[in-house]
What does this fold into?
Amino acid sequence: MLDVPLLIGGRSCPSRDERTFERRNPVTGEVVSRVAAATLEDADAAVAAAQAAFPAWAALAPNERRTRLLKAAAEMRRSASTASSNERRPASSTRRVGFECSAM
It folds into this structure.
């Protein structure tokens, strides 16, 4: 099973009250992940971290921002591919949903 923390200010962390919720495979009912349940305080901390990071992001040249976003998209695709290959369910019970990332 996969434990999924919050990501606030570039750091993984549990929710402030350490509550979680379970995600289940709709076909088997098996718990596939336990996810941190963010509180209002967690949301406020995430907004504050984003506001603090914005000036440095805005100061980057557009091509540098593009490069970083494309790298993040590639990492998300790699992670999604790894996660899906680790799941143990029949192919007939799943449907692959993808997304395209186009550079402008």
